[in-house]
Amino acid sequence: MNKIEQGLISSIEVAVQKLYDQTLEDGMIMIEIPKDSTKGDYSTNIAMRLTKLLRKNPQMIAQELVKELENTKGVKSIEIAGPGFINFWMKSDSLGDVINTVVEEGTKYGHNNSGNGQKILVEYVSANPTGTLHLGHARGAAWGDCITRLLNASGYDCLREYYINDAGNQIHNLGLSLYARYAEQFGRTVELPEDGYHGPDVIEISKVVASEQGDKWLDKPEGWLEFFKTEGKRLELEKIKRDLNYYRVGFDSWISEQSLYDEGRVEKAITKMVDMGLTYEQEDALWFKTTEYGDDKDRVLRKSDGSLTYLTPDIANHEYKFERGYTKLVNLWGADHHGYICRMKAAMQALGHDKDALEVDIIQMVRLVENGQEVKMSKRTGNAITIRELCDDIGVDAARYFFVSRAVDTHLDFDLGLARKQTNENPVYYAQYAHARMCSILRQAPEFKKQDSYSLLVEEKEVALLKHINEFPGVVADAALTRSPNKICNYIQKLAAYFHSFYGAHKIIDDTNPALSNERLGLLIATKNTLASALDLIGIAAPEKM
Fold it and tell me: Residue 91 — φ and ψ, nearest 5°?
């Protein structure tokens, strides 16, 4: 919500209190921008919403409110429309106040404190360190990075965390696979395990190990398997980090599943559940009473052979998140984990936490499409397409933008042909070209002189730009709250469209009217800064030249 909307809401609240002796609930007053600009700059349906409470005709309520609101600061005129809509026309200098704000705040414009410091931990990607990040990880990586950018920009205390699944059988098989490929470097043939890793990445890291270690591990001296497990995990994780950095995806914390065992957190979680009476033993296995907390059946924590299920360390991991003081936990999981949500929420509730403090965003499938045909395999390797290959093909900006432009819980057809286009059909190019065009104009323009008011910006396309820029902090706050970076993409497209429309209709640098030209330069700078800020919030570059 912007300052103008806040001001209108405050004035309406005061008017309702004075006229009807009523204190309205938060959210009762809704302010919108009419699609038809002839119906005002802003509009509210509060008169109709008050009908039931006041037992009066909405037209009568609207008339009484309008009379009380006539002298509201920044309002030029007010009219009643239809069954009781109240439409406001703002003074041009009221709308133009945002220019100085944006000029001063630069590309930090839109940042806000709506989160009020709430501690949120967001876990995303968390792929096993046993191979290269592929297309299946790309959507969640971009989405997770964008929502954490939005949360941090909106005043939340947000931690970005990667959970390393490094304690299961997959790491054992990685060690065996790496040794087999290592031995091949010295001419020996070693059979890969049945569930081993056959991808080219294991071959590549085996060459690194052979180069650094020589043949010292060839005859399997004591500790050989532990070495290959540790080295394989380390080198795979380094590659994952390189690919994520290339993709502009960052993390503040890397939590190892193995560390939860080493630090006793897994056993501590089991003991706590047993002591709380949340478990029972049956057929030599330890069961968790998840049905008492909404799950469809009880779940095994420790199997009859003594090994633990995946659920057990996951419970310990989430317990550790709460122990660190985070009041909201957000996980990004693939669609195949949908059934896992209920049991994890059940575990948190059973352990004394608010189950709604854990929220899970499900990432739906992506289909790469080119010339109307689905693309599944890399042309270079014949394997699944990796994040790095995708970014090398279409660029990091296009890859990120296309993934976050649609809600993550919907299936996505990713059009490679469109992503490569250097035309306005490509939404990334359209937005970036708008920013580059603004920079080009500013390079030729005289120095902008900040004004106390911007009363000359009265044309329809100028007013549309000003209103849209005013909306930005509210859009950012809402996108953070709902974890919806696609709302920023929608905002970017509209802002670029408003700019192109304004630029096509009006001369910005006009030597015959320096006062108007200066105000339009201010509007241009405000538009450029807002667009750059919006692009940064979704990790997209704002080029000055194209």
Answer: -65, 145
Tokens of 252: 């503040």
Looking at 3.10.310.10, 3.40.50.12710, 1.10.540.10, 1.10.730.10, the CATH number of the domain 95-115+423-537 comes to 1.10.730.10
Give the span between the Cα atoms of 229 and 416, in whole angstroms.
37
Measured in degrees and rounded to the nearest 5, phi and psi for residue 113 equal -115, 30
Sequence-distant (≥ 6) Cβ neighbours of residue 513 within 8 angstroms: none
pTM: predicted TM-score of the whole model, two decimal places: 0.90
| Other CB atoms within 10 Å distance of the CB of residue 510 | 13
The beta-strand segments (E) located in 112-177 are 119-123, 157-164
Residues 82, 92, 73, 23, CA torsion sign: positive
Question: How many other CB atoms are found less than 10 A from the CB of residue 192?
Answer: 15
Q: What is the pLDDT of residues 270-302, one digit of tens each?
A: 999 999 999 999 999 999 999 999 898 999 999
Kindly state the tokens that stand for 201: 């990445």
DSSP run (H or E) holding 95: helix 92-105
Which residues lie closer than 8 Å to 18 by C-beta, 6 or more apart?
68
- CA dihedral for 50, 54, 57, 63, sign (positive or negative): negative
Q: Taking the CA atoms of the chain, what radius of gyration do you get in angstroms?
A: 29
Q: Is 362 helix (H, G, I), strand (E, B) or coil?
A: strand
Residues of the chain with pLDDT below 50 are none
Q: Using an 8 Å Cβ cutoff, are 202 and 130 in contact?
A: no
Length of the chain equals: 546
Residues 518-544: tens digit of each pLDDT:
999 999 999 999 999 999 999 999 999
CATH of 3-90, one of 3.40.50.970, 3.90.420.10, 3.40.605.10, 3.30.1360.70: 3.30.1360.70
| Domain locations in the chain as residue ranges | 3-90, 95-115+423-537, 119-162+248-363, 169-246
Stated as kind and residue range, the H or E segment containing 332 is: strand 328-334
Per-residue model confidence (pLDDT) at position 426? 97
CATH tag for 119-162+248-363 (out of 3.30.43.10, 3.30.360.10, 3.40.50.620, 3.40.50.720): 3.40.50.620
d(CA 23, CA 380): 66
